[in-house]
Structures are given as structure tokens and as C-alpha cells.
Amino acid sequence: MHATILLTRPMAAAGRLVGYWEKRGVRVCISPLIEPEFEPRAPDLSGIKGLIFTSATAVQAFVNLCPHVQLPAYAVGDATAEAAREAGLDAVSAGGDAEALIRRILADAPEGPLLHVRGRHARGAVAERLSDAGCPTREAVLYTQAEQPLTPQAATLLNGQAPVIVPLFSPRTAEIFSAQHRGAAPILVAAMSAQVAEAVTMEVAKLSVAKQPTMESMLEAIDGLLSAADDLEGH
């Protein structure tokens, strides 16, 4: 019985990862625990000199409402910056988490005000902290991540005996998975950051934190858990 990777990201993001693992012969089950619901009204951009994105979903939400706006942008990480560039925005990646993003913006000292485009469930108080540090920043909440139940396929997987590897990319998905989880299968969690790991409140066979809050580091962490799962099955 080989390990299965249970992807709990929104369907669009999870779908991009499936091919990577299936090419390597790893079984993947998709059960999104959150899915975005977008706001219908465009944000107030009066006076705004630049944008801040802390997720690729925020980029999608903004572009849906403001498809022709051209403003410089800061992105929390490489994947978010890539999404912004694909949407035609001139984006700079902070290459990390909210702390790295705030440091980069304050170091650059761009002309403000800036607009932090975010979801309803956000952490880090980016706009407030930037404003307090002298960089005027407003917020626009353009989407919410609605909680979804585990699929029947995921529930069956978690009630089995084979190890299940669960990559968790945000504290909220970690909280939701911990609350919804039922079953006896050994669970091995790959957490995007220490904050995500802290939100895992259930008992797990192994918890691995990515060295950096990047997709590359997450894939490395998952690789390590695949080896650990083989060791579990060997005992």
C-alpha cells in the first residue's frame, strides 16, 4: 500500500500539481477545503500608486474586476508574482512570506498610497503595518475562501490503512483539515510555514515544515514525506 497525496487547495491550484505527481507514479486525491467566491464590485483606486498581492487568487480577483488597470505591484512570492505578470502587471516578488513582503516594500519606499488586494481571511496585517511604518496603504477585500467539506473519496482514503500525505499551504486550511479529519490512516503533513504548522491541531505521524515558503520547498518537503511513508510501511 503506497502513500497517497491528498491535495486540499482550491481546484484550480490543485489541478496544476496533479500532473507533477502522477508523472512520478504517485497517487493523488483532490479534495479542496476552500474555494474562492469573488466580490462583484471593483475597488476604489483613486490616488492608488501601486498594488500588493499576497496570493494568486487575489491577482485573479483584481484582474476580473479591473482588467485594464496598469499599476506596479508587489507580490508575496514567486508564484503570485508570476500570476500578476501573466495578467499583464509589472510585479516584483518578495520571495517569501508577509514579513519578507513588508521588509521589501519598506526598503523600496515606493510612492503611495498602495492598495493591498486580499481575501477576507488574511493574516499579517500588511496594510496596517505598512501604514504605521510610514507607507500609506489601503485594503480591498475582493474574495472570500469558502470552506468545503472533505469529499467522499478523501474520507475513504483517511479511513484506510495506507499513509496519506497532506500538503497544507495556509493556516486556515490547516485549521479546517484538523477540524474535519476523521480516520485511522497515518497522516504526514507538509506545512508551508511555521504558522501553518502551528495551526495543525490533530495528531500526525510526521510533520515537515518547508525550508522556505515557496512551492519548490514544499515539493522538497513532500518528497521527504514520501520517503518517510515508505519507512512507515516497512515497519
Automatic annotation (TrEMBL):
One of its GO terms (molecular function) is uroporphyrinogen-III synthase activity. Gene3D superfamilies: 3.40.50.10090. CDD domains: HemD. It holds the Pfam family HEM4. It comes from the Bacteria. Coiled coil: none annotated. GO terms for biological process: tetrapyrrole biosynthetic process. This is Uroporphyrinogen-III synthase.
